[in-house]
Amino acid sequence: MSIIRKVVVPIAAILTIGSISIEQMSAQTPISLDSCYRLATKQNKEIAVAKHEIEAARLKEKEVSVNFFPQATLYGGAFKFGDDLQPIDYDRIFGGFSPLIPNMIKERTKLDMSSVSFAAVNVIQPLFMGGKIVAAKNMAHEAIAIKEGGLQMKTRDTYASIDEAYWQVVALSSKLRLSKSYLKLLNDALKDVTVLYEQGIATKADVLSVKVKQSDAEVTLTKVENGLELSRMLLSQRLGLDPSIKLSLVDEEDGRLNSDTDLLPQKMDDLDIQSVIERRPEIKSLTAAEKVFKYNRKMVAADMLPHVALIGGYSLTNPNVWGDKVSHNLGGTYHVGVAVSVPLTGIVSGAFKYNGASEGLAIRKLETEDARNKINLQINQTRLNLEEAYKQLNTAIVNKQNADENLRYARVGYKEGVIPVINLTAAQTAWIQAGDALIDAHISLRLAQGKYERAVGIMPIAE
């Protein structure tokens, strides 16, 4: 559940979803469920974090790919020493005759260390790393797939939470109209029974029984109004808006719910369950995780193999020590060669690490298979729930039609004086109960349809 964010001014400069802006929402312009989806996905912090994680994974893949190319390093430095360097040990070479050697000669063989500088560039090109670089590149690529699966799951969960909040508002809005209609029926019945009581036809008990029903209806109406207010606040919160913004929804319009049978298919086509399961983000992420562990095992194996690299570079020094004689100027030379690294004692520990990586891979495969079974069960369960919701809706429609007819006969019979007021109020109670059940059936069908579509991987809006 995301944190409520205050909408700052100017609002239109911050948030515009299609042609729906916050000003239009505040003006009670009805918004659709798809608009709520788009607004929620744009405002949701978890989805934003998931998108940044995907981008970070892509950058990581590019970073790992650099290891295929030569790695160059530039070195340099300058120093000043207090004494000169005498590379020739005259005492060791000439022994007791050392004092006979002129100081002029000794001075000429000294290296001037008052100003020493060096520079070097070194290049390393991997030739054979046991497949470690390739495995690391593939691991980074699969990490992107894992993050993308996480984004899809968070987006799907956001759709589910919006579904619940949206249709709760629609349900309570419909029940508010129903409660007002019921209260009007009771008010009319109270007027009629009061007139009959004054004429001596009805009893005081008849009047009181209607008043009790009226009081109960007023309490119910208040509860529905409060529930609707809170539901609107919840929907605004899940959309990342200020709760003070009162949203008006397209499906709140009277009669919109009755179009369910036109909007939703009466018979679901057979699905290729296996292909649906493989397209689910959970399976994509788990399959990518399997590959990550597989490549990790290859990296462990690569550490037990020899590593070969081509090394080359160029070095400069002052004093120049690379020529036939030492000179006090900048000079240098190149170097090129092949470096080989062969692990010896590390092979033993590497073998244990390899076996541990193999066990990790086996665990991931079992988790993936278990997820496939659970998703298969979920798809079948949501499909059965949707079929049940259709049947409940058809039953609720018939019951509502019967309740309407029963109320019509009761009102006519009461006016004709052939049935008592208690039968009229009973017919009214049956009418509102049937209406309430019909609204619940419509909402249950909408929610069941959304759950089924998400289970089979159908997103309400294109990503």
Automatic annotation (TrEMBL):
Pfam families: OEP (PF02321). It is found in: Cell outer membrane. The keyword Membrane applies. InterPro entries: OMP_efflux, TolC-like. Residues 372-406 form a coiled coil. Keywords: Cell outer membrane, Coiled coil, Membrane, Transmembrane, Transmembrane beta strand, Transport. Belongs to the outer membrane factor (OMF) (TC 1.B.17) family. This is TolC family protein.
